[in-house]
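Subject: complex prediction, re-run

Hi both,

The earlier run crashed halfway through, so I resubmitted it with identical inputs.
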Amino acid sequence: MIGRRWYTPWLFLAPSLLLLGVFLWWPVLNTTALAFTDTHTLRGGGFTGLDNLRRIMSDSFFWNALRNSLFFTIIVVPALTVLPLLLAILASAKLKGMTFFRVVFFSPVVASMVVAALIWGWMLRSDGLLNFVLERIGIINEPVRWLSDPSLVMISVAVVTIWKGLGYYMVIYIAGLQNIPKDLYEAAELDGAGPIRRFWSVTVPLIRPTMFLVGTLTALNAIKVFTEAFVLTGGGPNRASETLVLYIYQRGFSGLELGYASAMSLVLFVVVLGLTLIAQIWTRRRANP
Amino acid sequence: MRPSILRRLALTSVLALALTACGTGGDEPEAEPDTGEDTDTETDTDDDADTDDADAADDDGELSGDISFSTLQLSPDFDEYINGVIASFEEQHPGTSVEWIDIPFEGASERLLADASAGTLADVVNLNPDLAFPLASEGIFVDLDEAASDVRGDYIEGAWDAFRYPGRDGAYGYPWYLSTEVTMYNAALLEEAGLDPDAAPETFEELFSVAREVAANTDARGMHPALENRFVIDLVKLGVEITNDDATGATFNTPEAVAHVEELVSLYEDGAISPDAVTEGHRQEIESYQAGNIALFPTGPNFLNIIEENAPDIAASTRVAPQIVGPAGVTGMSVMGLMVPEGTDNPEVAHAFAQYMTNEANQLAFADEVLIFPSIEAALTDARFTDADEDADFAEAIATAAEQLPNAANLRPVVVDSEVNDAIISNVQSAMLGDMTAQEALDAAEAEVNDILARRAG
Amino acid sequence: MSAIPTTPPVDPVEAGSDPRRGATVDPSANQRARHRRVLGVAGRYVLLILVLFISVGPFLWQISTSLKGPEENIFAFPPTLIPESPTLNNYLAVMDSLPLGTYLLNSAYVSIGAVIGNCLFGAMAGYALARMRFRGREGLFAMMIATLVIPFEVIMISVFLVTRDLGLINTLTGALLPVALTVLSIFIMRQAFVSLHPEIEEAARVDGAGEWQLFWKVAMPSARGSLAVVAIFSFMAAWDDFLWPLIVLRDASKFTLTVGLVFLDGQFSADQRLIAAGTIIAIIPVLALFIALQKQFFRGVGQAAVKG
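This time it finished cleanly. Structure:
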């Protein structure tokens, strides 16, 4: 780092700071301030100190929604960190017609959620394809209620989310895989390493920064999820698939309790900050044992 | 990308809104409201004559100034009609100009809240009672009991009252187009079940018994509960009050309500309702009906058109019966209205335009375009609504619906927004799944709703 | 979905079922390798086709629906994929009822603006955060990441007020600016630059390159794959964005495609064929961009740079 003036980094950052400052941080700051008020979306409100936080503590729907979101995150993050990597490796092969396959793998990302819900409805409903197949091969005796059993509904929502996210994170992995020097694979092959061995000893260590990126992104997106739950189940039955953002949103837009919605967002923000830090420390420890 | 929650709200309202485009097969060219009419002579002048009374009564002075007018998803189907009305208004009042903005249902509520916060609402805003509720409760709209007392008598009373809000005096919307639910049913499925396809169910008991018969004798289910949209309205039809008058306490935990929930549970257990229906909404209900998976579909006549577009075979065996009624005999309708915000710069023009848009001639011209019903009492006596056996596409539905309107009301209390609705139906879902008894579910729902109402009052 | 192996696998079942395999007596090592490769290719295609079946559903349904004639039931169950009487009328009808050209231009303006903003500013910021040491770097980065989790809907009204104060309501610039740079892009670019080999940089530095040249001539080309990712993601985000353009844009002449298309799904008419045709029209530019950019991933930039 020779000959760099102190302000050089800031020159690089200036356009970003300007745009993010005006259109993200200022509104976020504004909204965060509302967390300590009883602001009504249209009416304004007054400072109420920690009342909102106290209310969150005793709001069982908030905790239910947080639990659902965390459960969902725990299912989705490992799946969406690993499966897209495998898909990317498959899609990176130099074979005929690969562009076509890549496009198709990517297509669920741009599919409208309503259509995805329609098709998954055909799969998951009690007389749907999945139950039909499972009954045929004798795994189940009577139809499983994938979309109305409170203990399964979140898993069904997660499956659809994973399905829709595969192509998205595949793209990041494909880009990441190309940064792995080919000669490393050749060297490993010369050493007699089989494909699985090569995967573990070459791909995984070198793709780890990308896995961290994808893991973080999936976690952030998972904790924010609501479209899938909303379209598939409307949050039901009896709030079994009501996610945190669904709940926040309802309070802010239907209940018009902008202050309370902001307070819940603040809690979400802190939870995520904490999880990010844990993840960072964990990866750092993994990286330098 | 993110289908907003408000989509759900919007769908709720859409469901209630029974409106249908005419010229279903696309075989009829879009008729222009004011000029394309052969039957009403060269109508421009007629319209003008009719509306002059309304305007004159309100304001004798010269109108001038610009206003904006926002509607809910009427473009592009009704561009010609709306632009025609605007043009003739501007012609009558040379100093005025009206800018039309059309907002889709999806995202409408977010857009309205953002506009209300930033003071950028249009001068005349088209809303239904549910969408208007949060804004009207904050006193954003002009009270028309006062501002338009002279024309109030022209409108159907139930429609005018649809824009009253608990805890506030006054009515806040000029009623615009109306619709009312009918019962659609798949006659082929009824026949297959050994039922008389001409004897449509008209009461809840009949509805449930037909549903059971269909489920027992065919591969289809009887009905879809669409709890989110229908549960509260059905309670009202059964004579249950949802809250007290000033919306400070829940009053729906009654023996009638418990009996209704128990009935739903038993329909569910009997298979008359699909096991998946508990968490499904109106969207899946339409899909199921169009797939021929359910036999009965209470909805607005507008869905006849949509069914014909998407499932012509089902449309062919669809018949229409009057709305299902409870012992009290009340029928529901849905109402669209025009609001004038307090903050408008040009209230005279705004009121004059809202009255012009909703006057008899212009509403009848609108009803020529599409299957809606005018909110002006006198307009409902028009022959097109009373003579059923014309060969019009949906004559049966039109007559059925028009007959219901004079005594209809907006049954869904505005206080039942998505938060209150969720509090109620999420517990009903548990009851249907057998996790609670009907009584327990309603107890829990009552407590939750009381919490919400108390919080809103405090 | 359980095992999508990475391997040109030696699948015992496949090996056994291949008749040619049995015929090969005492295969030389060379032949074995060749067989393995053939089997590997076959195995990969089997997997590719398997995943294809999992992914293709919605796309197929939409294409099929958009080609169906008015007499077919769209919601029939089980669904029919092959239209009885295929027609392009639905596409014509969409073009007829909506000013698609205008919508496409508006969407293109916002999306291309978003791509430029995200790639350029995102890379600059990512570069500073990854390669430069300065006070407050970690804090700044943490702040960026944490704001990723705030749901847009929560801050929406506040963003709207800012946009109003800047006089940008009902302008495409107003629709663009909040998506002109996202934290996601900065994050992706930072990760790309973090794994850049320091030697290349040092070499260029010794050659007397300035900070900007280092960034533009050395770092950017070697992050081409990540730039392609950012381009695809930011294009898609801007192209698909619905709520924000809806709130900012007033005149129908300014609508983006996503906003314009919801008018097909109306209260009086909601023909799934037209909706599907509209969706396909909206998806094509995104997929075209994906096809164009995915080649960037396979240029093998990384290895050239490292060798140098």
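DSSP finds 20 helices and ten strands in chain B.

- K.
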